[in-house]
């Protein structure tokens, strides 16, 4: 499940195997596994070699 903020509203996207998500730069978001009893395997690709991460307390 991916959670991000759009125009001050929380948006949740549920995914299934084979899905992909594009997250535009600087969009506040959370990646989480909604099923703690099932393993989640993800591939994260970035357009830069630097991992740009800013942990936000409100998320």
Number of helices: 0
Sum up the overall morphology in one term.
Answer: globular
* Subunit organisation of the chains: single chain
From the alpha carbons, calculate the radius of gyration and give it in angstroms: 12 Å
Mean pLDDT: 81
Beta strands, count: 3
Give the helix level as a range of percent. Answer: under 10%
Q: Can you describe this structure?
A:
The protein is mainly beta and 59 residues long. It has one domain (1-59). The chain is built from no helices and three strands.
Question: Descriptors for this entry?
Answer:
22% strand; mainly beta; 59 residues
Layout: helices, strands, pairs:
Layout (H helix, E strand, L loop, with lengths): L1 E5 L2 E5 L15 E3 L28
Antiparallel strand pairs: 1-2, 1-3
Short account of what is shown:
The protein has 59 residues and is mostly beta strands. It has strands at 2-6, 9-13, 29-31. It contains no helices and three strands.
